[in-house]
Amino acid sequence: MKVEMSHFLLERRSTIKKLITQLSESFKYVSVLGSDTHGKRYSVQRKGVAINDSMWNERGFVIKVYNGIGYSEYSFNEIDDSNVEKIAENIKKRVNNQIKTLSSKVQITKYPIIKEEKIEDNFLGEVKILPQHSSDKNIIEKLTKVKDKALAISELIFEASVSMQQVQVSKIFISNDKDLYQSYVWSEGYIVTMGRKGDNTKVNYSSFSGLKGAELLDEMEDKVQETVDMTIKLLGAKSVEPGEYEVVCSPDVSGIIAHEAFGHGVEMDMFVKNRAKAAQYIDKPVASTLVNMHDGATSASHVSSYLFDDEGVVGGDTKIIENGILKRGISDTLSALRLGIKATGNGKRFSFERKAYTRMTNTFFAPGNDKVEDMIASIKKGYLLECPSSGMEDPKNWGIQCMISYGKEIIDGKLTENIVSPVVLTGYVPDLLKSISMVSGDVELGGSGACGKGYKEWVKVSSGGPYIKAKVRMG
Amino acid sequence: MINKIKDILENSEVEGYKIIETKTESEELFLVKKDVDMARSKDVHHFKVTVYKTFEEDGVKFKGSSSFDIHPTMNEAEINKLIDDGIFAAGFVKNEYYDIAKAEDKKIENVKSKFSKGELSEWMPKLMEALYENDNEEKGGINSAEIFLDKNYKRIIVSNGTDLSYESYSGMIEFITTWKESEEIELYKMLTFSDYDPQFISNSVEQMIFLAKERANAKDTVPSGKYKVILTGEPVKEVLSYYVDKSNAAYVYNKLSTHQLGDSIQGKEVKGDSINLILDPILENSVCSAPIDDDGVVLSKVSVIEDGKLKSYHGDLRHSYYLKTEATGDIKNFVIAAGSKSIDDMKKEPYLELITFSDFQIDSITGDFGGEIRLGWYFDGETTTKITGGSLNANIANIHNNFYLSKEVQHGEGFSGPKAIEMFDLTIAGKA
User: Fold this and answer.
1) pLDDT of res. B211
2) Residues in chain B closer than 8 A to A394 (CB atoms)
């Protein structure tokens, strides 16, 4: 079913156009992004239930103006037809005072004026069950069933937390040349199971996500047994003997490598700051010839697929690595202006209250031709790595840190019953990417959780890939 | 607007409610080197409403709740619908019954800050000045920075009669320092503050430039193996936050913590220093300082762990009710008492001192902690070598019956406590 656009934003379009007209008398470029995002998060656990609004909820506007030297922004969430003039005056006063105060004390970077092509367009996503057609009762009942099933499997499981959230994102972007709107729905779910034997406690999870509504719940029940079984196995896991190993990475681990190891490194606002080593490697080999990597709102259909980014730039499909050669990065509007390139539609904000940065969308390694069983069979001593828990970027020095929940031991080409947990995967990005020697045929993407820039500015992204065979340092 | 929301709630079928109103005024600067790349500001107003519903099923009493946002641009019909939906949803939230205590007759004060004197925009050049005061080196310095200064207003109205409000300020500076020897390297730092303390900012920059220089001169890591590790700086706070989580009422109620009152939280035979933990709602220059929590509970200082023994749980109204303990409220600042050893004493024997990681984390449920090492120093008994690379991977349950906290203290976001922890036999994944 087609998602319905926010009535609030459609109704406020004329008000925003009035504001833009008034401000255009003082500023050579004016644009407004309006957001009305609404979602609910449902969770059940052994002793508790919660229904709350999603952390992604927002309703407000951010205005960007050319201040004569560069760009200034103002975020606000109270506007109607009666106070447009007052808001316009307030914005003029704040921007002019800010620039006056600063320019007498510091250097302000000069930018050219943003040139936009005329465009009017819209995008409305589709899901099987619209949020307004799903009931709180039904969702809680389904989550409770999953939770009860998990807790019933073994007495070693002392907690099962099952949650899902569905979020409808609606945005408008209006400038003197652009008039865009879009609305789509994404959902995510988690099964988190915790096991305890004596003082030993272990946690495992399965996640679910996509451009879906409450139909996502139907996928969750099938994963309960597997999630619990692994939690119990983790209670017998050992620490990994530190060292370098041949490994097969599952699609979610491939995804975190694509995202952390390379994706952050080609965010071109980092090029502007001279914080990205990748800037020196354009058209140079950075990975094995088997490696192809994409990012873009249209590169896949997942949680970060949209018509336009938070600066009104239409999204696309950027081929970052082609046959092991780094070809190009991704960019927001201002970074593209500084670098003299075309913006790729990757300007994203945590919310209307925050600045736009270059951010990833759907980032993944493209498929190859190998079979997973052949990849495992080719390893004498190594691990099958699954279930990443977090990662951290290092665009300047190309270090990599990924926290992986567990590795399944491979000896003489076969999986054993032994598990190591947790695993810290570290190394030098090109070494890791150049070590990729086999790539499987099917790509899987996941978009649960959120991606930060440093330790803030959370945005929704997906990442993934096929199974890859590589050589990594584990500790 | 808040009166409109309150009137609608009072005239609805809701049994109990809570409204959290926040207003934020903000100034933001984004800097590349020492130039302003962009300036931003904002004025936003938010309302979060929680509705409560008590109900019975099969003779068991439950208290459900549901929380939702009300935007200032919403009309009366939209607000009415949200409230009706919220009450309906609360009926499916089968949480064990708990009481919301009557309002306390206490007065609260704003969180003290020099930022209250003058406009936010006037403070921004002063913060910039402090940031760049010690950025005077040739081979390195600040690559880029972001400065945020917020003026916050928070009001909490609860149907039990609570109506309290306060103002606070929160500042944040994120900056990257670089240093170039044969290759340029960088380090990341996020500073938060609630008061104007230029020395705190300039000293942090000086230290981060020094650490960047050290990392640029670090060539290799140590061989894989077991080491005596001295953890210093920010990772110390992360490790010690384990004790805050393990004594939290929600953790205990949900069995994420198995500790009971009177338990020795570090195990039975503690050879090293014992933990002493205090929660303090108002710590100087902390963005976590607040006179009340989001339930409107008036906060005061509380001692949680004394000499390694769990003296009291801490937490919100709901989970404290379940554990039949007085609700301390949700206090965000924690203080760990200094230990028995000076850092100099810790360094008399061979050690591996670790200060910066890519992303140092502890999992409070499992006790696992670690990360990739960005900078450390290895002392083999004769010489000290700068090291970078490799990783630490350990579990606190295996080491905390024999660790030492430094006499020297540090202050970080929501934290005051030892500057260093000395830990034994930790596994480092280094070179082969």
Assistant:
1) 97
2) 358
Q: Cα distance from B68 to chain A (closest Cα, Å)?
A: 5
Going A127 to A129 to A135 to A140, the CA torsion angle's sign is negative
Q: CA of A98 to nearest chain B CA: how many angstroms apart?
A: 7
Please give the tally of structural domains in chain B.
Answer: 2
What pLDDT, in 10s, does the model give residues B343-398? 999 999 999 999 999 889 999 999 999 999 999 999 999 999 999 999 999 999 99
- Tell whether A105 is within 8 A of chain B (Cβ): yes
Q: How many CA atoms lie within 13 A of B210 on its CB side?
A: 9
Give the β-pairing of A48-53 and B60-70. parallel
pLDDT reported for residue A101: 87
Segments forming the whole domain that contains residue B169: 2-217
Q: Is B376 on the interface with A (CB under 8 A)?
A: no
Q: How far apart are CA A470 and CA A378, in angstroms?
A: 11
Q: pLDDT of B262-319, one tens digit each?
A: 999 999 889 999 999 999 999 999 999 999 999 999 999 999 999 999 999 999 999 9
CA neighbor of B301 nearest in space, from B264, B331, B345: B331
Which tens digits make up the pLDDT trace of B129-178?
999 999 999 999 999 999 999 999 999 999 999 999 999 999 999 999 99
Least CB–CB distance from A108: residue in B36, B73, B96: B36
Query: What is the distance between the alpha carbons of residues B261 and B107, in angstroms, rounded to a whole number?
Result: 31
Let me know the angle formed at the C-alpha of A168 by A162 and A173, rounded to the nearest 5 degrees.
145
A397 vs B186: CB contact, 8 Å cut-off? yes
Q: Are residues B73 and B205 in the same domain?
A: yes
**B83 and B191, same domain (yes or no):** yes
The CA distance from B118 to B161, in Å, is: 34
Of B217, B237, B261, which one is at a domain's C-terminal end? B217
> Is this complex's ipTM strictly greater than 0.85?
yes
CATH of the domain at B22: 3.30.2290.10
Rg of chain A (C-alpha set): 24
Provide the residue ranges of all domains of chain A, joining segments of one domain with +.
7-103+121-234, 243-474
**Same structural domain for residues B358 and B230?**
yes
Choose the weakest-confidence range: A397-401, B158-162, B227-231.
Answer: A397-401
Q: Going by DSSP bridges, is the β-strand pair A357-358/A347-348 parallel, antiparallel, or unpaired?
A: antiparallel
Chain B positions touching A244 (Cβ under 8 A) are 432
Architecture of the A7-103+121-234 domain:
2-Layer Sandwich (3.30)
Do B305 and B376 share a domain, yes or no?
A: yes
pLDDT band of A472, cuts 50, 70, 90: very high
Whether B229 and B191 map to the same domain: the answer is: no
pLDDT digits 0-9 by tens, B105-133: 889 999 999 999 999 999 999 999 999 99
CB contact under 8 A, A77 and B44: yes
**For chain B, how many residues are written?**
432
**Cα B143 to chain centroid, rounded:** 26
pLDDT at residue B16 in the model: 94
List the 207-266 stretch of B: residues with Cβ below 8 A of A: 224, 253-256
Instruction: Tell which of B93, B119, B135 to mutate to test the A interface (max A CBs under 10 Å).
Output: B93
Which residues on chain A are in Cβ contact (under 8 Å) with B89?
51, 136
Show which of B217, B237, B269 is a domain's final residue: B217
Question: Does B45 sit within 8 Å of A424, measured CB to CB?
Answer: no
